[in-house]
Amino acid sequence: MTEQNSDHSFPLSDVVAKRWSPRAYSSTHVLSAKDLGPCFEAARWSPSSGNSQPWSFVVGFRGDELFSAMVASMAEGNAIWATHASAVVANITMTHSAEGKALSHALYDLGQAVSHFSIQATAEDLLVHQMGGFNSPELGETLGLADNFTVVTLMTVGVLGDIADLSEKLQDRERAPRVRKPLSEIVIQGASY
Ligand SMILES: Cc1cc2nc3c(=O)[nH]c(=O)nc-3n(C[C@H](O)[C@H](O)[C@H](O)COP(=O)(O)O)c2cc1C
């Protein structure tokens, strides 16, 4: 095992090797909008289909109304640990133009922007945990989104707290090895590893 409880077939850049999705967030760490600026700037510079930049973000900081609304939309199994994070971000994409034309790569583009965010966050010594376990239509309504926008994922941002503060079940998941399919299974033609 190398960085972050994982094994690597090839050496990775520090920020890629160090990224992982924690649950044991510090409930005393405070983030400011300025702290998250470089992460959103990295998302801004993500590539997108036709440079359409279909992504947008809503940020809540622990203790404010947006944070509470986003945690309230989460599945219980996520809310229980996410509530300790320093911030929650709603990752939103435009699915159709105002004229009704579908943006065929909107989900792909948003995912890539979130990946840029996560990698920059790692460089800022922050930890990001994305999630799909939340009520997207309900949250979209709470946030007053137009019909052609959808909240695809939420992500928590913060720093590591004490793993012992989690339930035993979550402690086990937090300490479990991070596993991946081997390269030989995902690079299926043209190169063998
Ligand atoms: C689209 C998406 C949805 C996810 N949904 C959840 C979720 O609802 N709850 C959760 O605990 N983790 C969620 N995750 C985190 C993944 O479980 C995690 O990224 C994966 O297990 C790999 O672990 P790692 O990020 O530490 O490498 C999600 C990640 C992605 C990208």
What do you see in this structure?
- The chain is of the alpha+beta class and 193 residues long.
- It has a single domain, classed as NADH Oxidase (3-Layer(aba) Sandwich), CATH 3.40.109.
- It is 36% helix and 16% strand.
- The chain has helices spanning 14-18, 33-44, 65-72, 76-82, 106-123, 136-142, 168-175, 183-186, and strands at 55-61, 87-94, 127-131, 149-158.
- Strands 1-2-4-3 form a four-stranded antiparallel β-sheet, with helices on both faces.
- Helix 2 (33-44) crosses helix 5.
- The protein is globular and about 45 Å long.
- The model has no long low-confidence stretch (mean pLDDT 96).
- The structure holds flavin mononucleotide.
- Flavin mononucleotide is lined by residues 20-21, 78, 130-133, 153, 178.
- Flavin mononucleotide binds at residues 20-21, 78, 130-133, 153, 178.
What's this entry about, in short?
This protein has 193 residues and is α+β, with helices and mostly antiparallel strands.
List the helices and strands and how they pair.
Layout: H1 14-18, H2 33-44, E1 55-61, H3 65-72, H4 76-82, E2 87-94, H5 106-123, E3 127-131, H6 136-142, E4 149-158, H7 168-175, H8 183-186
Antiparallel strand pairs: 1-2, 2-4, 3-4
Helix pairs in contact: 2-5
Bound molecules: flavin mononucleotide (FMN).
